[in-house]
Design brief:
Blueprint lengths: L1 E4 L2 H14 L6 E4 L7 H18 L2 E4 L4 H7 L11 H21 L3 E4 L9 H15 L2 E2 L9 H11 L11 H11 L19 H16 L4 E20 L7 E3 L9 E4 L1 E5 L2 E4 L5 E4 H8 L6 H6 L4 H12 L8 E4 L7 E19 L1
Parallel strand pairs: 1-2, 1-4, 2-3, 4-5, 11-12
Antiparallel strand pairs: 6-13, 7-12, 8-13, 9-10, 10-11
Length: 360
Amino acid sequence: MLVHICCSVDSHFFLQKLQHDYPNEKLTGFFYDPNIHPYSEYQLRLLDVKRSCKKLGIELLEGEYDFEAWMEAVRGLQNEPEKGKRCEVCFDKRFERSAQKALELGEKSFTTTLLVSPLKSQEQLKRSGDIFFQKHGIEFIAYDYRTNGGTQEQSRVTKEEQLYRQDYCGCIYGLTIQREQQHRLMDEMFSPLANQILPSSIQERLDMYTYRNELEEKNIAYKIIKEKFLNYRQFSHKIVSAKTEIIPSYALFYSTLPRKKAEGKVEFLHNNIGYFNREEIMFVTLEFFNSTCNFKYKSVNELLFNPPSVDEELKFRTILTDTHYNLSPIIIVEKIPQTKLTIELNAKIYEDTREKLIII
């Protein structure tokens, strides 16, 4: 039997149940989910599914990540709610490819781990599956492992196996609607040009779960926990002089302006810090930044495209301000400007939760 797989949270429990109920059935996993966005999230879910299938002794095949074709298929359905028409089209596309893969492998039936997801309509899935049975002759088996405490059991398995538990279905449209309803920043879509790994980003989780797999290969015990913290995302930043010249600059992590813009000038210098006369802004030179942190940046532009880690930025902030609680804008420049400036800084600080791996 071919089993279409959407994520490890659904698949691990679902596959365990199939192995128990059908011990003589050879199961082949098929990860085909071009709806998952962004691609780093796709990589993360695939990474965890590979681990899960390996633990269960199930062969896993990966389908094509034809995201553009998926986008075309759901064109015009962007505002459909969860379990609406967009989801139905999404199921149809994934079932079509799963049925084709089952035919290629000589299988007579297929199913999907989506059936166990409480966010999905089983009736909707069954309708899509029945269409492909009539079209291809591949029987769709609709197992119901949600009832009789199945959802609670699935949650237990997820926790015990320390699976990656995503908090959105996968597609950009569902994510957009969900974050708007939650009044939350859609920070999953942030991907800095400089490739700096941001706290609670998909890339941070991808690195952590990759490290988790390495620890398991070495039989090193670990635990994945969650912690609350103050997160930060910077949308844009620019400094313009009185002569309308853009001054190359870099704003450190946690730098914000309440009105996103400030006009004024550096009032005085003290201990290598230039103090602006508005919004508690501080300026430091790249030379001072290099000497304090033992960096070797040749220009601010180099810093922009190859920044240090967030932890290193926070260490410098603490050295400069002698506190862990300082949120003033700290801006790095080649030399302290002595002219009137217009500083634009669009950024947000917000409460967030992230996963953390500890070795035990």
